[in-house]
Amino acid sequence: AGQPIKCTAAVARAAKKNYWEDALVLEEVTVAPPQAGEVRVKITHAALCHTDAFTLCGDDPEGKFPSILGHEAAGIVESVGEGVTEFEPGDHVVPCYQAYCGKCEFCLRPRINLCTSVRAFTGAGVMKADSKPRFTDSKGDPIYHFMGTSTFAEYTVLHQESVAKITKAAPLEKVCLLGCGISTGWGAVWNTAEFEKGSTAAVFGLGAVGLSVIEGCKIAGASRIIAVDLLDKKLEVAKKWGATDFVNPSKLDKPVQQAIVDMTGFGVDYSFDCTGNVEVMRAALECSHRGWGKSVVIGVAAAGKEISTRPFQLITGRQWMGSAFGGWKSKLEVPGLVDRYMKGEVKIDEYITHEMKFEEINKALKLLHEGDCLRCVLAL
Ligand code: NAD
Ligand code: DAO
Ligand code: ZN
């Protein structure tokens, strides 16, 4: 503790539209010691998520460069700053882009996350203690943080509000996924939608998020789960996860919402957008049940996009809702998700389609772009 650490990081020097073409630069960076209220973590495993690509390609209006991306990871505490009492070196942790302070009005309200304690700083890519980043490059110039996590680095510094301590028995190479995608899907079903046993669902987009929504619906006792994707090859995986029906909108002679209403009578009790496409969000709302259907937006739309529907859809009882990180109070609840995985109640391993060395991160971004990858985990 107390000393800067030199290590390797994958630096996003600038936005690059073709993010899959060697956009990240592996560089030696210096990671300053944690200041008051901060924790320095040795990242052992980092996965890639579309939000990293979204920022890297320049679509994220909050994106700041140069920066160190990455927000779905796990690691071990290396040292802690002044006043930090909840963590000590050697603790196993999952960094959480969605912070939890336990004191703000968001943290105090049940089932709501969106903590505001460090949000302004994480959005600006700096740490709260001095409004500066802890990373510098070989010239001594600053490199900004991303989502308060910056996990594409061998060491990172986190606000203590953005760290969840987990059991040392859990395999870090698996539970790193709980930092984003699959926690999001489960939480959207259990926290946001408050899914009731015996209900029906439609899930649009069958990446890791959509599949974890299917898994969440199945665990919640769904009677029917209609999986929707443009790729026929997703059919098999959707069935494996628990979907009962598969619809490919590109093979239909009518709008997908109409097809789902026709299949179900009055629509599904719950629908979920896991694509980020605003037309899909509309279809998801419109295939939800007249009178009580709930439609949850999970996908992140490109900057400037807007959703629309006829207000009649809402007058007739459908509810349009959404959540970030599945509504989980990260620091408080991620440890419990890890425990559920350890008890075999939820799956994680099956979402990991690729494993690589950290040095191959650009290859992993290419895989993400090509679409055959649910999750790729990098070992640091
Ligand atoms: P992914 O790219 O792996 O999966 C998306 C799937 O949607 C693909 O299978 C694709 O074929 C399918 N798809 C695309 N267009 C479609 C269409 N018109 N109709 C039906 N299917 C279509 O992505 P992912 O990692 O699973 O993430 C899904 C979305 O969730 C992304 O937008 C991501 O940014 C977002 N996300 C949100 C949160 C949150 O907290 N709200 C957290 C994590 C991820
Ligand atoms: O403003 O406090 C806030 C929350 C903003 C973060 C919302 C993130 C939504 C989804 C991110 C995608 C995956 C990391
Ligand atoms: Zn808070």
TrEMBL record:
PROSITE patterns: ADH_ZINC. It holds the Pfam family ADH_N. Its EC number is 1.1.1.284. Residues 36-167 form the Alcohol dehydrogenase-like N-terminal domain. CDD domains: alcohol_DH_class_III (cd08300). Transmembrane segments: none annotated. This is S-(hydroxymethyl)glutathione dehydrogenase. It comes from Prorocentrum cordatum. The lineage of its organism: Eukaryota, Sar, Alveolata, Dinophyceae, Prorocentrales.
